[in-house]
Write a sequence for this structure.
């Protein structure tokens, strides 16, 4: 089976199709890397745009989840702790 490129468009399409439901855990970066044969850092970069646009919520120590309030941006969620 050929590898499917991991991208913002793919993640957003899966959320829109309810494959990833609001509040449900998305695959981790490691799991995304295994699903799409890409490195951990590539998976993290692919999630950065939807996170920055408020499509997914990513807080340190919490699972990556689709945003239950898609109109909300990153400023509407607690900041990541360093």
């Amino acid at each position: 089976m050929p590898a499917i490129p991991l991208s913002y468009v793919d993640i957003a399409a899966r959320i829109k199709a309810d494959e990833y439901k609001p509040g449900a855990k998305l695959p981790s970066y490691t799991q995304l890397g295994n699903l799409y044969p890409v490195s951990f850092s590539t998976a993290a970069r692919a999630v950065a745009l939807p996170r920055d646009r408020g499509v997914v919520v990513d807080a340190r120590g919490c699972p990556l989840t689709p945003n239950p309030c898609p109109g909300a941006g990153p400023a509407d969620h607690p900041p990541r702790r360093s």
In short: Residues 32 and 43 are 6 Å apart (CA to CA). DSSP finds three helices and two strands in the chain. Residues 73-78 have pLDDT under 50 and may be disordered. Residues 8-62 form one domain.
